[in-house]
Amino acid sequence: MEPSRKAFRIKRKLRWDNKGVASTVGTIMALMVVMTFMSMIVNQYVPVWMKDAESAHMNEVYGQFGTLKGSVDLQVLSCVIMLRQNEPCMKSSVFSPIEIGIDGVPIFSAPTVGELTAREDRGKFSVNFSYQHEVKGTNQTFYVKQNSSGNIVLHVANRYFVRQTLTYEGGAIIRSQEEGEVMKGEPSFMVTKKGDYVEIWMYLIDLYGDGSVGGIGTQGVHHDLNGASYDEYHNVNSDVTIVHWTQNGEAWYDFFNETLSSAYGVTEQDYEDNSPPEWDWYDTGAQEKVTNPYFIIKRTVFDDYSLVEITIESDDVDIGRLTLVSSNFDIIVGETSSRT
User: Fold this and answer.
1) What share of the chain is helix, strand, coil (3-state, %, to 5)?
2) What single-letter DSSP state applies at residue 54?
3) Which pLDDT does position 155 carry in this prediction?
4) CA 116 to CA 334: how far, in whole Å?
5) Are 337 and 209 in contact (CB under 8 A)?
6) Residue 169: helix, strand or coil by DSSP?
7) I need a labelling partner for 283 at 20 to 30 A (CA). Which of 12, 232, 238, 306 fits?
8) Residue 215: which H helix or E strand, with range?
9) Residue 42: what pLDDT?
C-alpha cells in the first residue's frame, strides 16, 4: 500500500490595491447628486409649483361659478321678460363646465381632487308677509309664504394652497375656508327707499336634484329651467320675514346687514335705543343680532349650519311694493344626479 499523502493548500497573502476605489466613489457621488436633486424637487420645486397650480385652479373655478350664476340669472330674466309680455315662458337647458380638480406632478405629487355636489334640501329660504287687496269693493288681507331650496357645492382638497369651498345657493356665490367666508357674487336682492316707503325685489331660485361627482378634470352642471313666476305685491300691511337655513350664515348675515343698512341709510344713532353699547351686533352664546327701527337680523349658530332670520319692519317706513321672482331648475351634476 502506498503511504497516505496529505493535501497541501497554498495560502495567498491578501493585498490591498486602489483599482476599484475610483469607480465606487464616483458611483456614490453620482447617487448623492441625484438624491440632492430629487430632494430639492420634492421639498422646494413641487410645493411651489402645486401651490401656484392650486391657487390658479381656485381662481378658475371661481370664474366658472360666476358663469354658472350668470347663466341661471339670464335664464330667469329671459323667462320673466316673456311673462311680462303675456307670453309663455319657454324651458331652457344650459351646461356650465366646472373643473373640479387638477393633475399633480408626475412621480413627485398626487393630483388634487375635488367633489362637486348638488343637494336640493340645503340652503332653504322662506319669505312670509301679508298684503291687502280689494275684492268686490272690500279690502281683504292675503297671506303669502314662498319657499325655495337647493345648492351646488365644490369642495377642493388642496394640500399646498388653503383648502376652500365654493357654494352657489339662493343666487349667490360664497367662498369659504377655515378662517371665514365671504360672498363673492351677490344674489338678486334689492331694497330701494323712495321717500316714505321702500320697494323690495328678490329672486327665489329652486334647485331640484341630488348628486355628486369627484376626481379631477372638467365636469359640469346641467341646469334646466322648468318655469318661473313674477309676482308684484302692493299694500303690504305686515313685516316681511325672510328665514334662511344655511351652512354659510356668516356671509348671508353680513350681506343682509350691509344691503339693508345702505338702503335705509342707517347710522349709529339709529341703534342707540335698541341695542347694547356695541351698536352694530352683539353675541349671546351662539347668536348674532342687529336691530334698529327699520330691520332686525339674527343669526343662530348650530352644529353645522346657521339660521339667519331677517325682519324688515313696516312701522316707520312702509313697504310700497314687494316683487318676488320664483324659478325652479332641474340640476344634474355629472351622471349621478336624480330628481326625487
Assistant:
1) 25, 45, 30
2) H
3) 93
4) 9
5) yes
6) strand
7) 238
8) strand 211-215
9) 64
Chain centroid to CA 89: how far? 29
Beta-strand (E) ranges in 88-137? 92-101, 114-119, 124-135
**Residue 60 φ then ψ, to 5°:** -65, -45
Compute the distance between CA of residue 78 and CA of residue 230 in angstroms, rounded to an integer: 12
Which residue is it, cell 412621480? 107
The torsion region of residue 328 among left (phi > 0), alpha (psi -120 to 50) and beta comes to: beta
- The list of the chain residues with pLDDT below 50 reads 1, 276-282, 337-340
Residue 292 neighbours by CB distance under 10 Å? 24
- Please provide the distance, in angstroms rounded to a whole number, between the alpha carbons at the two ends of the chain: 107
pLDDT (tens digit, 9 = 90+) per residue, 105-114?
A: 666 667 888 9
- Residue holding cell 330628481? 339
How far does CA 284 lie from the centroid of its chain?
27
Q: What is the DSSP string of 252-318?
A: HHHHHHHHHHHHHT--GGGGTTTS-SS-S-EESSSEEEEE-SSEEEEEEE-SS-EEEEEEE--SSSE
Element (H, E) at 323: strand 318-333
Please tell me the predicted confidence (pLDDT) of residue 196: 87
Q: Cell for 268?
A: 349709529
Residue type, 180: G
* CB half-sphere exposure, 25, CA atoms < 13 A: 5
**pLDDT value at position 312?**
93
Q: Give CA–CA dist 138/86, Å, rounded.
A: 28
Can you give the pLDDT at residue 340?
43
